[in-house]
Amino acid sequence: MILYKPIGVIHSPFRDQEGMPIQPAGARGIQGWIDINDDYMEGLRNLEGFSHIILLYHFHLSNGYDLKLTPFLDKAKKGLFSTRAPRRPNPIGLSVVKLVCIEGKIIKIENIDIADETPLLDIKPYVPAFDAFSDATSGWVKGKAEWLCDIRADDRFSKENG
Amino acid sequence: MILYKPIGVIHSPFRDQEGMPIQPAGARGIQGWIDINDDYMEGLRNLEGFSHIILLYHFHLSNGYDLKLTPFLDKAKKGLFSTRAPRRPNPIGLSVVKLVCIEGKIIKIENIDIADETPLLDIKPYVPAFDAFSDATSGWVKGKAEWLCDIRADDRFSKENG
What we know:
2 copies of one chain form a homodimer. In chain A, a hairpin with a 2-residue loop joins strand 7 and strand 8. The first copy, chain A, has one domain: Elongation Factor Tu (Ef-tu), domain 3. By secondary structure, chain A is mainly β. The radius of gyration of chain A is 16 Å and the shape is globular. In chain A, about 0% of the residues lie in helices and about 30% in strands. At the A-B interface, strand 1, strand 4, strand 6, strand 7 and strand 9 of A face strand 1, strand 4, strand 6, strand 7 and strand 9 of B.
């Protein structure tokens, strides 16, 4: 077993999963902030030079998982690991968000598809040379990403439905 | 506290941190494989359509952390969260690797910068519409990524030096 402890809390306008945007690409302009625990503040130095950051967080509103599920972007069941659904064996979320500014222990962010009060596990700088693969093929998601702006989450992955 | 359990094990040619490539971008052509626990095999369906996958894993060779550290790509100390160093409060690694093929519970992968026997926490499909931000600015890493092919890790982030 592996034990982690949140390093801060993510704040957003989204109190529950229903109505939330799907992916940062469907959340353009939506703002939120991270409140980093005092203990870790010094580790934020040099981060402000990056326009985007990778957030790893714990999907605290999800529990349990199904190995096949119907994702928001399709009507047919898919294998869990071919989706970004929050109900996973280890419910770790990953979002690439825009870094607006850092003020002390507060990091202001944009394009946020994350529920309010989500426990933050890690921040990494987004580096195109490490992370941007524009030519990657996207399997069953191909051609569906353009729907992102119109689709909002329902409660299918919430704790009550877990 | 948050508790996770590995879903499989990552295998690679790298037995310890010294001499390892830095980032998948510095590990082109290096092959490895993932052995997924039987329990989760069904969740791999539909994954093969994706050319790249995101691996989240536990840096099992690291322990402890410093909030400021000298990364491989620079000579000056940087704030921990502006680096991809393995010694972190929650030592979760993230690599985007090429998916070669899936045979039962074995996933063959390429461009692997991960130590042998690393516990795997999650697999997510890499989707350019979600994950590729080619125009992102990369702070202190700017202009240094081209060194990746020539640089190899030393043992500065290993357990012994933790």
